Amino acid sequence: MTTTAPSRQKNGFLAGTANYVDERVGVAGILKEFGRKIFPDHWSFMLGEVALYSFLVLLLSGTFLTFFFQPAMTMVHYDGVYAPLKGAQMSVAYASSLDITFQVRGGLLMRQVHHWAALLFVAAAGLHMLRVFFTGAFRKPRELNWVVGFVLFVLGMAAGFTGYSLPDDLLSGNGLRIIDGMIKGVPFIGPWISSLLFGGEFPGDNIVARLYSLHIMLIPALILVFLAVHLFMLVIHKHTHYSGPGRKDTNVVGYPLMPVYVAKAGGFFFIVFGVIMLVATFFTINPIWNYGGYDPSPVSAGTQPDWYIGFLDGLLRLAPTGLEVMVGDNTLSMNILWPMIIGIGFLLVVAIYPFIENWVTGDKREHHVLDRPRNAPTRTAIGAAGVTMYAVMWAAASTDLIATNFRMSLNQVLQTMQISLFVLPIAAFIITKRVALSLQRKDREIVLHGRESGRIVRLPHGEYIEVHEQLDEFDRYKLVDFKDYKPTLARPNAAGKITLGARIRSGLSKFYFEDRIAPVTQTELNEAIHHAHELHDEVQKAIEN
Amino acid sequence: MSDNSKDLATVTSPYSDHEYPAGLANVSDDKVTDPGIEPHRVRMTDKSKKHEKAAVRQVAALFFLSMFGSAFALYAYFAFPIDANLDTVRNNTLFLGLGITLGLFGIGIGAVHWAKTLMPDAEVSEERHLTRGSEAKRAAAIEILALANQESGFTRRKLIRRSLYGALALFPLPGIIIFGDLGPNPANSLRHTFWANGTKSKPLRLTKDPDGALIKASDVTEGSVYHVIPEGLTEDNPRYLEEKSKAAVLLVRVDPKDLNEAADRKGWSYDGIVAYSKICTHVGCPVALYEQETHHLLCPCHQSTFDLNNGCKVIFGPATRPLPQLPITVDKDGYLIAQSDFHEPVGPSFWDRAAKTNSNGIEG
After folding, report:
1. Which contiguous run of DSSP H or E holds residue A451?
2. Taking CB atoms and an 8 Å cutoff, what residues of chain A touch B248?
3. What is the pLDDT of residues A18-73, one digit of tens each?
4. Quick check: helix, strand or coil at residue B356?
């Protein structure tokens, strides 16, 4: 297709450059392979893009900040322009953060761009995960890419927390104090790990520089590596698409990378960047000058971490009084360990979910057509339960603010949250599953009998009926094309034994697929259409008479 | 399939190239037939030259707007410098930010508008292949592995293989141990505070945080609360923050009749004045809030609540242990002094905190 490639002249500068690059890098082959790759279109596919672009914004704004920030905890007396802190003793890190804010043109703007982009990065990654979960995009062959994405989410939280701790102001110091307290609660080795992390006693004068190394080097490098793997797998698998006419597990329907997606996705980067810039221009985030440098004695009421650490902080608050126990002469801080176990356990379940579902269904086929959430009722209900549990943990980080703002008793708010942590996910599961099944029934109804048109017609024998309008075949196909599973009984293995694994698996398959609405078959559809025609004729006759 | 594949009996796949087992899935042979991709709907810009031209002008206008925004940002950088007046920070942020925003939005919205109105919008279908390689490719890959194995003798030469595993297992260990000097042995550092520097003959007086003023018992009125640090712990101390993290104390005076003191702590308060560690026994936040009416101390981080009247026992929240009490009294001039260090480690719990507590107190 590039018969003109060898002759480079005559076509001007662009062709010359293209030829130069191809003869040295072989770019023509890459372009031929990927230039017209098809990408499907849907707004929900842009959530991952938002995360990717916020990360690029983080790299850009973060690099700017590194040129001015000094990660040292040496004590100095502040001599900058911010009058309320003049002469106050503080760390170099905090002083340089204040200088970025008040003495560097665009410094406050870049700090706010960086912080807002970080909040957006974790939020977009989280929403992207939810989209992938609820549409079943994690199914074979994408299980491993789910795990890679999960690691990226956790790395995002780590990057956020290490960055939050750098300005060494009162809030960031308090965050570190809580981390120190949690680490000390680890059995046997807690005080040792704390000493290694802080370089001695808390707070010491090492922690900011150490977190800085992690924050600007190790963690972003890991994120870049995992991003590369994530996108590489995306190219290998090709993007999923939603069910609809012509969409199959064996094809991908959408628009070509060049030029449509280059323009759309490239433009979208600028839009995401623009939104972050706009928010950073108008909305203050983390006003580090408000509370002064870190001091272990004062603290302001209503302290909270950035939103994505909230669920861990909430878990700490949810622990009821008196969990700490003595084991012989030693102290076992279960009031810290339980929250850690539940938090980490929750994340682990998220990480391995694709493998659980795959084991239950035993479905080894490749899945490239996404599920509408209603068509996988149990999975959707599990997701809703998880989201609810996360929401309770997260809201629990605001018990004090809820109590003061709504004039309620702090104790009752917390007790409500403690109960909610277990009750609400179950309620969410049941409600979501019922709603999903009802929506499936409604879909079936619409496919077989059409949409209610609001037109009431009286038949000759006096019966009133509402005329239903049939869907066109394209809209209809969206509603009937989904995968359906049936529960199975535990079967004996080759040795004639029913293993425990088989029993659990059949139990789970019952849990997943006992309540199911089967997709409409062609026979059912034909009958329904036939019936609709008869009715139509009857109505038509009635109208004519 | 390549010719080589017949040598490799094990490669034959249990599945054909296009089908994997469907597990519990209901594979219906009565599926509704797929009508195929919907017919393309023509846009206004496809059928009307006028609309097409308008779209071209809109896209270009957006790109011009972007140029204006970026130029304005350059202007704002110089036109709105910042000085000692903090309002200038606001103006600098505002106008610089607005200019850059416009520069970004112009490009972004322009490019998307271009794609949506002027580039082809007919959906295309591309075939997908199974992720796994074809049988021929897999056979070739396995053959390479088998050849590499045969040439190196990796499976055959057990001694080499096993000693390599051993070497690989040990080699990271120096890389881990080398981090040992990140921090010292915590040893007993968590068991003592700055208050231990007082002696029988020269006890440490209580001072206000942060101005360091001494506190006369007679000045402490009922219901008032003082944030206290030990005498001599000043900002120029190189370990100021570490010491303060352990030695910070909250001092409160209540009606002595309200105090329920344990028998072994009878002499630790002075005329209703009690001093407790300000560092929460949960994860170490400062317990900074005092509710005057209920005599409760509240930690703002996780809301652990301590009952001052009853030895600061936990009555709410995730903490378990009471706040450690600092034994105090007055000297001959009426100033509050500490009788000794705390009698137990302050702050968050750790594994062996209860051990060796007896060697901690310096009284007696």
Report:
1. strand A451-458
2. 296-297
3. 999 999 998 899 889 888 999 999 999 999 999 999 999 999 999 999 999 999 99
4. coil
Domains of chain A: 1-36 (no CATH), 37-246+259-291+302-364 (1.20.810.10), 440-544 (no CATH)
Distance from C-alpha of A121 to C-alpha of A114, rounded to nearest angstrom:
10
Q: Which residues pair with B306 in a beta bridge?
A: B297, B314
- pTM beyond 0.80: the answer is yes
Question: Which residue in this structure is represented by tokens 């308060």?
Answer: B269
Pairing of strands A451-458, A464-469: antiparallel
**pLDDT for residue B359 is more than 50:** no
Among B37, B131, B288, the residue with its CB nearest the CB of A299 is B288
Q: Using CB atoms and an 8 Å cut-off, which of residues 500-529 of chain A contact chain B?
A: 509, 513, 518-523, 525
Return the pLDDT at B10. Answer: 39
Testing the interface with B: which of A34, A139, A297, A475 to mutate, by most B Cβ within 10 A? A297
- The one-letter amino acid at B123: E
CB atoms within 10 A of CB B53: 11
Chain center to CA of B125: 45
List the single residue in A with minimal CA-CA distance to B184.
Answer: A200
CB contact under 8 A, B82 and A102: yes
Q: Is residue A274 less than 8 Å (CB to CB) from chain B?
A: yes
- Give the Cα separation of B319 and B325 in Å (integer): 16
Q: How confident is the model at residue B9 (pLDDT cuts 50, 70, 90)?
A: very low
Is the pLDDT score of B14 beyond 80? Answer: no
CB contact under 8 A, A263 and B119: yes
The pLDDT assigned to B18 comes to 55
pLDDT in the model for residue A544: 77
Tell me the pLDDT tens digit for each residue of B169-213: 999 999 999 999 999 999 888 999 999 999 989 999 999 988 889
- How many Cβ atoms from other residues are within 10 Å of residue A77's Cβ? 12
Looking at the complex, report in whole angstroms how far the Cα of residue A152 sits from the nearest Cα belonging to chain B: 23
Round to the nearest angstrom and report the end-to-end CA distance of chain A: 66
Q: Which residues of chain A lie closer than 8 angstroms to B239, CB-CB? A: 201
Show the tokens assigned to A237: 């698998």
When computed from its CA atoms, the radius of gyration of chain B, rounded to whole angstroms, is 38
Query: Which chain B residue is nearest to residue A488, measuring alpha carbons?
Result: B24
Amino acid at A540: Q
Q: Measure the CA–CA gap between A7 and A2, rounded to whole angstroms.
A: 10
Q: Chain B, 249-278: which have a CB under 8 Å from a chain A CB?
A: 278
Q: What is the mean pLDDT of chain B?
A: 90
Question: B276 and B295 in contact (C-beta within 8 Å)?
Answer: no
Q: Give B 171-230 residues with CB within 8 A of chain A.
A: 179-180, 182-186, 189-190, 209-210, 227, 229
CB atoms within 10 A of CB B355: 14
A430/A426 Cα distance (integer angstroms): 6
Closest C-alpha among B18, B42, B63, B303 to residue A418: B303
Q: What's the average model confidence in pLDDT over A149-174?
A: 96
Show residues of chain A in contact with B356, CB under 8 Å: none
Q: pLDDT by residue (tens digit) across B77-130?
A: 999 999 988 899 999 999 999 999 999 999 999 999 999 999 999 999 999 988
Helix axes B87-117, B49-79, angle to 10 degrees: 160
ipTM of the complex: 0.92
Distance between B166 CA and the closest CA of chain A, angstroms = 27
Show the tokens assigned to B364: 């007696």
